[in-house]
Design goal:
The protein is α+β, with helices and mostly antiparallel strands. The protein has two helices and two strands; from the N terminus they run βααβ. It has a two-stranded antiparallel sheet.
């Protein structure tokens, strides 16, 4: 199961380009892992969180309160 990465503290002037570059490496990966040497420079100093994926066959239902 692949995991998405969440980044915080990105410089606003570089965020879009940096995330698009990372997204290309993420999509090219077989397992969602991106080697550290492929990370754009701005992401190497950002805070990072791994977010587990939800299988595509699982449907989400939110309770209504």
């Amino acid at each position: 199961m692949s995991q998405m990465k969440g980044f915080t503290n990105l410089p606003p002037s570089e965020s879009a380009t940096t995330l698009l570059q990372f997204g290309e490496h993420y999509l090219d990966s077989d397992d969602g892992g991106v080697p550290w040497d492929k990370f754009p420079e701005a992401l190497k100093s950002a805070e990072l969180a791994r977010i587990p994926s939800i299988p595509a066959t699982q449907s989400l239902e939110f309770p209504l309160h």
